[in-house]
Amino acid sequence: MTQSQKYRITLLPGDGIGPEITTVAVDVLKAVGQQLDITFEFQKAKIGGAAIDDTGDPLPPATLEICRNSDAVLLAAIGGWKWDNLPSQQRPEQGLLGLRAGLGLFANLRPAKILPQLIDSSTLKKEVVEGVDIMVVRELTGGIYFGQPKGIFPTESGEKRGVNTMAYTESEIDRIGKVAFETAQKRRGKLCSVDKSNVLEVSQLWRDRITQLAPEYPDIELSHLYVDNAAMQLVRAPKQFDTIVTGNLFGDILSDAAAMLTGSIGMLPSASLGASGPGVFEPVHGSAPDIAGQDKANPLAQVLSAAMMLRYGLDRPLAADRIEQAVMQVLDKGYRTGDIMSEGMTLLGCRGMGDALLTELENLKS
Ligand code: NAD
Predict the structure, then answer these.
(1) Are strands 72-77 and 133-139 parallel, antiparallel or unpaired?
(2) Last residue of a domain, one of 241, 265, 289
(3) Within a domain: residue 270?
(4) What is the pLDDT of residue 90?
(5) Residues 208 and 304 in one domain
(6) Which positions does UniProt annotate for Mg(2+) binding (predicted)?
(7) Closest C-alpha to ligand 1, atom 44
(8) Which protein residue has the closest C-alpha to ligand 1 atom 4?
(9) Judgement on whether residues 174 and 208 belong to the same structural domain of the protein
(10) What is the pLDDT of residues 240-290, one digit of tens each?
(11) Does residue 2 sit in the same domain as residue 115?
């Protein structure tokens, strides 16, 4: 039996290929919504370069307000050459940072899944990456990027000294830990916490708190790795991982390394979640200004972000499953956009890929 519900979704198409890939994701959401009796009420707002052009501000207060009053935010990408020379505080990226801060998004979820149809896109050997399905849960608002003191200070000897501080409180560790355990529960039940507790006190506290959370999740198998070993294991034997949880700096690096196991940036979604309120769901790639407006963009990362929104933001796993199945089917049928094209496959544009997805969704219905 399906449960009928209405969700208010804020769309932030942003810049470059953003509007094109958002159109495809919206069509897919509408189609799956019709099938499963879910109603989406979409509202659009501006962010990044588009918002700078409109208001001079990469995150106008009205945009943040609309996001706050929604159930989830589907963001595409921001930035482009046009705004590259603005002072850093007025650049499109500030829109993203402001959105994360404004919505209190402290957990970033980045899946790295090898799709059998695209296995040749990986630079690693087939037998190493075949079957890889990893989720990196990264703490997003604490750690060394935000800890105080920070800055470049003069020393008594007259030279300068650069300082950043890696700091986590118990409550900051607990809240990301809970998201990670719950994420592992929605996956294969294995969680690996990554730290540097052999050297860093902040990591010792991290390991203690994560270990103390474990009894609340008896269904989860918890392990710990030092970050240097985790980096090695990710390229040596990535199949051993299910869910990884780690701090801001280690997560920044490991999530990119994990993503590149797949080799195809146009396929990677992400989610950023807070304690309550709407999460933000967006592809990992940027605004691809080199192909914007040419109907060449791969919309699948955006479509898979919409699936993550259904699974992790709105708790509608069946709808998420259906979208992910449709993506698998179009790939099985050999449809490809330019970025993932290979010999013998059928080349489609962004719109064509959207149409192929709608056809597959229709087929899945029956
Ligand atoms: P990019 O991800 O936009 O593009 C890198 C390369 O991958 C380009 O050749 C592009 O054409 C290709 N590509 C990316 N996504 C694609 C897709 N869906 N389909 C087909 N090809 C795709 O990274 P970049 O070129 O370094 O940055 C371009 C702009 O995007 C910059 O202004 C940058 O600041 C911004 N950016 C934004 C985000 C974000 O919004 N989260 C992330 C990264 C970069």
Answers:
(1) unpaired
(2) 265
(3) no
(4) 86
(5) no
(6) 228, 252, 256
(7) 286
(8) 288
(9) yes
(10) 999 999 999 999 999 999 988 988 888 999 999 999 899 999 999 999 999
(11) no
Tell me the CA–centroid distance for residue 286 and ligand 1, in Å.
3
242 a catalytic residue: no
Residue span of the structural domain in which 337 resides: 1-103+277-366
Residue whose CA lies nearest to ligand 1 atom number 23: 286
- Could you tell me if 311 and 169 lie in one domain? no
Residues 290 and 356 in one domain: yes
Task: Name the DSSP letter for residue 291.
Answer: G
* Active-site residue, selected from the candidate residues 37, 120, 228, 332: 228
Mutate-to-test residue for ligand 1 from 52, 74, 287, highest number of ligand atoms within 8 A of CB? 287
Are 116 and 246 in the same domain? yes
Amino acid, single-letter form, for residue 295: D
Q: Note the pLDDT tens digit of each residue in 213-225.
A: 999 999 999 999 9
- Does residue 100 have a known ligand-binding role? yes
Tell whether 225 and 99 lie within a shared domain: no
Does residue 256 carry a catalytic annotation?
yes
User: Is the CB of residue 285 below 6 angstroms from any atom belonging to ligand 1?
Assistant: yes
Q: Which band of pLDDT confidence, cut at 50, 70 and 90, is reported for residue 1?
A: very low
**One domain, residues 14 and 117:** no
Question: For residue 3, what pLDDT is reported?
Answer: 55
Q: What is the DSSP string of 32-83?
A: HHHHHTEEEEEEE---THHHHHHHS-SS-HHHHHHHHTSSEEEEEE---GGG
Task: Encode 106-141: b = buried (16+ Cβ within 10 Å), e = exposed.
Answer: bbbbbbbbbbebbbebbebeeebbeebebbbbbbbb
Q: Which two tokens stand for residue 219?
A: 């269904």
